[in-house]
Design goal:
The protein is α/β, with parallel strands linked by helices. It folds into three domains: 7-144 and 265-327, FAD/NAD(P)-binding domain; 152-262, FAD/NAD(P)-binding domain (3-Layer(bba) Sandwich); 341-445, Enolase-like, domain 1. The protein has twelve helices and 21 strands. The chain has helices spanning 16-27, 42-47, 49-67, 82-106, 158-161, 178-189, 209-221, 312-327, 356-363, 376-381, 410-422, 427-432; strands at 7-12, 32-35, 110-112, 116-120, 123-126, 129-138, 142-144, 170-174, 193-197, 225-227, 232-237, 243-247, 253-255, 257-260, 264-266, 299-301, 341-343, 349-353, 366-373, 387-394, 400-406. The strands form five sheets. Strands 1, 2, 3, 4, 5, 6 and 16 form a seven-stranded mixed β-sheet that branches. A five-stranded antiparallel β-sheet has the order 17-18-21-20-19, sandwiched between helices. Strands 10-9-8-14 form a four-stranded parallel β-sheet. A hairpin with a 5-residue loop joins strand 20 (387-394) and strand 21 (400-406). The longest helix has 25 residues, at 82-106. It is globular and about 70 Å long.
């Protein structure tokens, strides 16, 4: 009976979540195969978190060079080589691809480099080959979407931004999510003039309003052109390889590059999910229960393809949970509260827990603590940048519900406070914690004055 199927688990997609599920399941004795049609490591390793952070690092040097004069440094002639940056980035990503391959092979996982399609609940086609599996796991992630705008074929998405053959001088970014804002900082820091076009009145929907407003102010200080309540009406080519962008309001824009960062959709089209009895929602996301099982009893799904908490660490945790549930003899469901996140904008954002609006809706009476200050580094560097920190506290229990920051090292700082929130820390416990001076992080344990409602 054990050999009724070719594999115990067949994973479609070798991103962070799929790789983790494959390795853990194999470690628990399962026969595992993973199919990948593009690149090992998925979005995060290849066209997401890792290469994007590398580009952020590169773009930050321009401000560091400028600020160094206040600390006594004299910096000579500066030149930036886009092609060298991209080549070095590609070398690092290839190294990571190799590490993922070794991890899978050493775990005993069979790697199939081709597109997989589900034929029925237990049968998968990979090219001309068909295999069977007791359980299937869908981990195909998401894919950038581009709205239907005249001239949309002249644009790129974040996927292509990592492989441009030249550095653009003028960039228009359409979209106000974290991807668009991170690339706005990247291109600006590398010397381009950047315009951000967003359909709403303020960007970063879902983040705390104070953070959203603070980031808009800091981006404008840097000279980034923000166009809110605006849509792209038409994109037309120009004779000089540039594009002319007509907007729903305000003057048009000419650019060497226009990038759509208007969202990502679950990558489910053409997988055969419906034929296997897997329910999808209105945007094509796989519907799962608390144990990540789909409407088909033996098919599971994790990560961005479920369109819930679209973060790499969440996909990794979900991959482990599925493997443990199926082969570790213990059903695991995850807690999605207090999942920290960061936006590597400039300055960056770090956040964990509830926003002010969410806390008011769920708990009613809350207390707020806020601090705005000029970082010590900028007192000599001369940069006009302000850091902002905020605590959201349940008035009845004194428990800290949300911790939010914009400023240097925000992600690094918030990671530690995420532990405190996960443990149910109260504001009194924050107050009783000794500050580490001089740091920006100490503000979180020295805020005493309540902000007005």
């Amino acid at each position: 009976m054990a050999d009724k199927y070719d594999f115990d688990l067949f994973v479609i997609g070798a991103g962070s979540g799929g790789v983790r599920a494959s390795r853990v399941a194999a470690g628990l004795g399962a026969r595992v195969a993973v199919a990948e049609e593009r690149y090992l490591g998925g979005t995060c390793v290849n066209v997401g978190c890792i290469p994007k952070k590398i580009l952020v690092y590169a773009s930050e040097f321009s401000e560091d060079f400028e600020d160094s004069a206040g600390f006594g440094w004299t910096v000579g002639e500066r030149r930036f080589d886009w092609n060298r940056l991209i080549a070095n980035k590609n070398t690092e990503i290839a190294r990571l691809n190799g590490i993922y391959e070794k991890l899978l092979i050493n775990s005993g996982v069979t790697i199939l480099r081709n597109r997989a399609r589900i034929i029925d609940a237990h049968t998968i086609a990979i090219g001309d080959r068909r295999v069977t599996a007791k359980y299937l796991l869908v981990a195909t992630g998401g894919w950038p979407t581009v709205p239907r705008v005249p001239g949309a074929e002249l644009t790129i998405t974040s996927n292509e931004a990592f492989f441009l053959d030249r550095m653009p001088r003028r960039v228009v970014i359409v979209g106000g999510g974290y991807i668009g804002l991170e690339f706005a900082g990247i291109f600006h820091g590398l010397g381009a003039h950047v315009s951000v076009v967003h359909r709403g009145s303020i960007f970063l929907r879902g983040f705390d309003d104070d953070l959203r407003l603070a980031l808009a102010g800091e981006m404008r200080k840097r000279g980034i052109d923000l166009r809110f309540d605006t849509l792209v009406s038409r994109i037309e080519p120009r004779h000089d390889a540039a594009v002319h962008v007509t907007l729903s309001q305000g003057p048009p824009l000419d650019a060497d590059l226009i990038m759509f960062a208007t969202g990502r959709a679950p990558h489910t089209r053409g997988l055969g999910l419906e034929e296997a009895g897997v329910m999808l929602d209105g945007v094509g996301a796989v519907v799962v229960d608390r144990y990540l099982r789909t409407s088909a009893e033996n098919i599971y799904a994790i990560g961005d393809v479920t369109n819930r908490k679209n973060l790499t660490p969440v996909a990794i945790a979900e991959g482990r949970a599925v493997a443990e549930t199926l082969f570790g003899r213990r059903a695991i469901s995850l807690d999605y509260d207090n999942v920290p996140s960061a936006v590597f904008s400039q300055p960056p954002i770090g956040t964990v827990g509830l926003t002010e609006a969410e806390a008011r809706q769920r708990f009613g009476e809350i207390d707020l603590y806020k601090s705005t200050f000029r970082p010590l580094k900028h007192t000599l560097g001369g940069r006009d940048e302000r850091s902002f920190m905020k605590l959201v506290v349940d008035r009845k229990t004194d428990r800290v519900l949300g911790c939010h920051m914009i400023g240097a090292d925000a992600g690094e700082i918030i990671q530690g406070f995420a532990v405190a929130l996960q443990c149910g820390a109260t504001k009194a416990q924050f107050d009783a914690t000794r500050a580490l001076h001089p740091t920006a992080a100490e503000e979180f344990v020295t805020m005493r004055e309540k902000a007005p409602d």
